[in-house]
């Protein structure tokens, strides 16, 4: 039984965001969200999670335009990186660069390309790990990056591209009577999803999710961020698909950030995706503690149209 992605993609490494309000965002991720600023290099800032071996899980870049700079995923080794770069290029995928030594924190070997919607994706291997530690009881800071959800105005096309081109597997789908298929949960390892594709009016970041140590820490963290005056969009609650807890907040740039815990791990490759009807209150929130999903809640996560499509970030 193997959960390994057929091309050797192993996990989500980091999410890179460009923001106009750089200093405000630095303060938010460091002082409110509970990440550790590992380094600052001019207009770049790298944030790590204390419980994660990744060099960083969020990179902020000062920019006039708000955009997703990049989604970065790990690969098994350099040979897999080379083989897959060649495969993508021959399939007509636009590469940003050829595989080579990475110039970012932790080094490594990798390359970048554009996905079907124009997001920049990086695949890499051999990135140095950082000294990390076990998060202690009642310590309400993120353990690791859990998953990233992206908006697409054609989520089925985006789902098919990630499945057919990158080898992600579909775990589950959310469906609505008027909107059709609303969200696809995709996996590259045994976590229920590392990536999800949501139906939105345009290509943008829907939300980025951070795993907490346990339920207690998740609730302490939720309360701390609420007390800091950050706008809570939705939660606390527990989703049906993935069985994970959720509380969503708007960061100062208007990107949605989530605290979660207990995301399901799939024990078999013979997983059969379910389609969950969003009209069923149990689909959105098994506990019934969050407000019912509404168009107002949904609109917050539509985000601004991404200004970086098919334009690779400068660094």
Automatic annotation (TrEMBL):
Domain VOC: 11-126, 144-262
Stretch forming the signal peptide: none
Full protein name: VOC family protein
């Amino acid at each position: 039984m193997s959960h390994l992605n057929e091309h050797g993609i192993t996990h989500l490494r980091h999410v890179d965001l460009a923001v106009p309000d750089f200093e405000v965002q630095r303060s938010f991720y460091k002082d409110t969200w509970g990440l550790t600023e590992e380094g600052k290099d001019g207009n770049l800032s790298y944030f790590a999670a204390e419980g994660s071996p990744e060099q960083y899980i969020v990179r902020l870049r000062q920019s006039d335009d708000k955009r997703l700079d990049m989604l970065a995923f790990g690969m098994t080794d350099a040979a897999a990186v080379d083989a897959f770069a060649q495969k993508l290029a021959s399939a007509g995928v636009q590469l940003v660069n050829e595989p080579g030594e990475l110039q970012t924190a932790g080094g490594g070997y990798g390359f970048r390309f554009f996905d079907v919607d124009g997001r920049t994706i990086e695949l890499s291997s051999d990135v140095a790990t950082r000294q990390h530690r076990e998060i202690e009881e009642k310590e309400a800071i993120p353990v690791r990056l859990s998953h990233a959800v992206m908006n697409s105005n054609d989520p089925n096309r985006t789902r098919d591209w990630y499945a057919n081109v990158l080898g992600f597997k579909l775990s589950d789908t959310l469906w609505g009577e008027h909107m059709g298929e609303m969200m696809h949960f995709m996996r590259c390892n045994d976590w229920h999803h590392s990536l999800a594709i949501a139906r939105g009016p345009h290509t943008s970041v829907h939300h980025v999710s951070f795993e907490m140590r346990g339920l207690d820490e998740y609730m302490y963290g939720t309360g701390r961020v609420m007390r800091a005056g950050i706008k809570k969009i939705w939660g606390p609650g527990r989703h049906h698909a993935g069985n994970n807890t959720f509380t969503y907040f708007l960061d100062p740039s208007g990107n949605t950030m989530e605290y979660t815990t207990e995301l399901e791990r799939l024990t078999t490759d013979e997983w059969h995706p379910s389609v969950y009807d969003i009209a069923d209150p149990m689909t959105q929130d098994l506990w019934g503690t969050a407000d019912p999903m509404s168009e107002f809640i949904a609109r917050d996560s539509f985000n601004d149209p991404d200004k970086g499509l098919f334009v690779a970030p400068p660094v």
